[in-house]
Write a structure and sequence with these properties.
two-stranded antiparallel ribbon, ribonuclease T2, binds 2-acetamido-2-deoxy-beta-D-glucopyranose, Ribonuclease Rh, Chain A, alpha+beta, signal, endonuclease, 5-stranded antiparallel beta sheet, 7 strands, RNase_T2_His_AS_2, globular
């Protein structure tokens, strides 16, 4: 459960991470001034387009030049493990996982600025995920959720507690710290220089959370499925197409559909099959390129396999999938 992102790090991403962390003192690019990042003065440039490819030719605070393939990711979990502490799941809604900046070629790096490391359980524990990477020290301070009150963002904190719920066994605030430090530090537009000479401590943290929330709120996975008659059920099973169809229609491009649980051919139902896909639906990843800084919230939906990657790790056999109902008492 410690690894919240079940994707292997490619060798290329690992190399990129090792190169960048050597220079990552504050932000992703050395020597960026904290002046003159008024993004409304420039026409928004689409990330991953040719116009966004050279960070020295654009304002990296106004154009996403580092992680231009943006993934709004959602979880379907059936319990939290901390129900007794009030950490519960929202009724009729998927929850936020994160808003990730992948490289335009689909690989990615992580923990790009260790001066903003607020993850108490770094995963992986080095920037590359290998022993020769830079160690990511565990954060021992108060959880990142506490950064929001001094910024007057208790409404955001409340919404996050309801909708940005950690996977079983994690506390929400620890999970948000993980998402921020592992992923948000790898956007050029959330670098602190972008916030000017009167930058307030943690301002970009709140800005990132607001941005992730804004993307999530436009992706009503539960309702898109429900409108097609696909509701969680512990009595029946589903096919991949039950999810791909309505979500592609709702989003406007093909999302990635993620599963966990046992592989189909290790289950009784799939005995003897060659389908080794996983059987419990638990994640959707929606892919975008973004116009201007991601904070503008203007994404262009793109297919999840735009870089050639696969569209699912789920079993493809008809009727192989579970979309489980939440545990009684885990959902309010
Ligand atoms: C993907 O893009 C990143 C950033 O530009 C680069 O460092 C990496 O080498 C690329 N990976 C591949 C497989 O091309
Ligand atoms: C900021 O913009 C002003 C007005 O264009 C210009 O005079 C100044 O040199 C710029 N400063 C930096 C650090 O870019
Ligand atoms: C990372 O985790 C591995 C496996 O648990 C451990 O062997 C290694 O010492 C850790 N590295 C750091 C830098 O904490
Ligand atoms: C499941 O399918 C995979 C891929 O076809 C195969 O390699 C594996 O041996 C199968 N496992 C079982 C338990 O049948
Ligand atoms: C993405 O997947 C679709 C459907 O499987 C396929 O038709 C398309 O060629 C794929 N695109 C890429 C870039 O691999
Ligand atoms: C449905 O099944 C899942 C997976 O076994 C379980 O976690 C959940 O509690 C069940 N929900 C209900 C309402 O029985």
């Amino acid at each position: 459960m410690a690894n919240t992102r079940c994707r292997r790090i490619t060798a290329a991403a690992a190399l990129a991470a090792s190169l960048f962390t050597q220079t990552a003192v504050a932000g992703l690019y050395p020597g960026v001034s904290n002046l003159n990042h008024t993004c409304s003065l420039v026409d928004p440039i689409l990330s991953c387009s040719s116009g966004a490819s050279d960070p020295s030719a654009v304002d990296t605070c106004c154009t996403e030049t580092f992680g231009g393939l943006v993934l709004a990711t959602q979880f379907w979990n059936t319990y939290t493990g901390f129900e007794s502490e009030g950490q519960v799941l929202p009724k009729n809604a998927w929850t936020v996982h994160g808003l990730w900046p992948d490289f335009c070629n689909g690989s990615y790096t992580q923990y790009c600025d260790l001066t903003r490391q607020y993850d108490p359980l770094p995963s992986p524990n080095t920037t590359t995920g290998t022993p020769d990477g830079t160690p990511v020290p565990a954060w021992r301070g108060p959880d990142i959720g506490t950064f929001l009150a001094p910024l007057g963002k208790l409404d955001l904190l409340a919404w996050m507690n309801a909708h940005w719920v950690a996977q079983p066994g994690w506390r929400n605030g620890d999970f948000w710290g993980h998402e921020f430090s592992k992923h948000a530090t790898c956007y050029s537009t959330f670098d602190v220089e972008c916030y000017g000479p009167q930058y307030r401590e943690h301002e970009e943290v709140a800005d990132f959370f607001e941005t992730a929330v804004a993307f999530h709120r436009r992706l009503p996975t539960w309702a898109w499925l429900e409108a097609s008659g696909v509701r969680p059920s512990n009595a029946s099973t589903f096919s991949l197409a039950d999810f791909t169809g309505p979500l592609t229609q709702g989003f406007g491009a093909v999302p990635y559909i993620g599963c966990a649980g046992p592989k189909y051919n290790t289950t009784d139902a799939g005995k003897g099959s060659s389908d080794a896909g996983y059987t419990v639906i638990n994640e959707i990843w929606y892919y975008y390129h973004v116009y201007g800084r991601v904070q503008r919230q203007q994404g262009l939906a793109v297919d999840a396999n735009i870089t050639g990657g696969r569209l699912t790790n789920c079993a493809q056999t008809p009727g192989a999938l579970h979309y489980y109902e939440r545990t009684t008492g885990s959902e309010v």
